[in-house]
Amino acid sequence: MKAWTIALYFITAYLISTQAFAREITLSTELKSYGGNGAYLALYLTNTEGQYQKTLWIAGQKSKYYKHLSGWAQGSGLRSSEYDGLTGASIHSAKTLKITLDLADSYIDSGFVIRIDSAVEDMRDIRNAVVVPLTSAGAGKATPGRGHIKAFTYSF
Predict the structure, then answer these.
(1) What pLDDT, on the 0 to 100 scale, is given for residue 7?
(2) 86: which of 11, 42, 57, 145 lies 20 to 30 Å off by Cα?
(3) Alpha-carbon separation of residue 91 from 11, 59, 112 (angstroms)
(4) How many Cβ atoms sit within 10 Å of the Cβ of residue 87?
């Protein structure tokens, strides 16, 4: 019985040590009041050199318009594998997009940056409408946006 207990202990310890730890993060993007259709947004991560790393969320379900989210489109290569399961409806004027997801701890306080690109039909597309370092210290603090975005906040 003791051998079984010891083996179970070591197996459990090994499995826990090899798992990537993640935490729940909530991303809140508030849009300005503007006349026009709903906005398409790409929320994504870049590394310290500004290179695309990971899609967090795409607001807007018609992929033919994703090319207007230029920074994200270039980095992701518009590959559907980069956004499968990470899309929702576009967001309308003066509304707030709030999403919650699990994010690996390795992205936090490691030089990674959250970026948001936005596009609205018959209006200007905005690359880097939000650029904010992903740090523990920045959690809960509103960052002003450009173009269609009034403010962005993330929290753990």
Answers:
(1) 45
(2) 145
(3) 46, 7, 25
(4) 17
